[in-house]
Amino acid sequence: MKFDYMIIGAGFAGSILAERMASQLDKKVLVVDKRNYIAGNAYDYYDENGILVHKYGPHIFHTNSKKVFDYLSQFTKWNTYTHKVKAVIEGKNIPIPFNLNSIYELFPKKYAEKLENILIEKYGFGLKIPILKMKETDNSELKLLADYIYKNVFYGYTVKQWGLKPEELDFNVSSRVPVYISRDNRYFQDTYQCLPKNGYTEMFSNMLNHKNIKILLNTDYRDAIEYIKFDKLIYTGTLDYFFDNMFGELPYRSLEFNFETFDSPKFQELGQINFPNNYDYTRITEFKHLTQQNHPKTTIAYEYPMPFISGKNEAYYPIPRPENNDLFAKYKNEADKLKNAFFIGRLADYKYYNMDQIAGVALQLFENKIAK
Ligand SMILES: Cc1cc2nc3c(=O)[nH]c(=O)nc-3n(C[C@H](O)[C@H](O)[C@H](O)COP(=O)(O)OP(=O)(O)OC[C@H]3O[C@@H](n4cnc5c(N)ncnc54)[C@H](O)[C@@H]3O)c2cc1C
Hints:
This protein is α/β, with parallel strands linked by helices. It is 35% helix and 23% strand.
């Protein structure tokens, strides 16, 4: 059998494109994944205790895009969920993103009031300031505060997460979680914040449940390419692997998750607690807060960042810094030369995408290039 499209990767990018081509263009599609399940890094499953967990770290869907939300809503109902995070700073659990409430948790009231006034006067209420920007201030009181936040909230976490200091990464990494001049403790401010009611894997299963879509699991791209016949390729894996490392390996950061189940219904006050300064893990996730599952036990995951080693662990995050971006550009240049192949996704674009962002990019690729 010959397929119109072979798609490598059953994550958001690959699955959305498969669904669109099968349902809108009546194309015959084969989705191939090297893992033995669909859903990419959003994969969730019931552990041996019957608790729904996220294998590749906590995934909270949040978006301002009604288009993306409506599209995915065809395949799932949702549980609304407001993500809140605290970080352990000087023995106290304080709200993250760092905001005015965090200041009141850490400093004496009078001093906190003074800092609040300075911040509002300088930036305005409701503004979000990247920490590296705030550190540039010439106001001595603000500079002290900025240095305190940098040291206690950002520095240790970034060094653990990336193996690099905040200044050694592209500016947009540390500005992803800016200081928020507000009393809003929510981690995200997006219009839609939710998780699929019965989990991500079921949402993907509904998406791929179409007579024109076949799924081949446990199969690497290199093996599939040997014997599958197809007209066009969509590839969502890494480009260095695709091109046999012809320019060298692209650096990624990896993670290890250590899951633990407790014989009590609750472990911690929120779904996510960060540890910028203590321990080797960056955060502890308690999944039941996210999934809202009722269960007498609870499962948590400790998250340990580490270097990516090809063949040993998973490539989770591209490491955004100029020399890596330059190396990626060489691979992208090769990819652009190939007719009948599209490269898309967090690995193939060497770019951190939230789920809604990659969903939007996949829908756009379909509308602007594939369906035209
Ligand atoms: C720890 C962590 C937490 C996150 N939390 C959030 C969050 O809370 N909210 C949010 O919006 N986003 C979050 N994200 C981002 C989210 O995971 C991505 O947006 C999403 O997974 C991107 O989808 P994708 O299809 O590009 O890639 P993926 O989901 O990674 O899918 C790629 C697929 O391709 C397969 N593949 C790769 N190479 C090959 C090959 N050679 N042969 C066969 N198959 C191959 C892989 O096995 C994988 O299944 C998080 C990411 C991480 C790492």
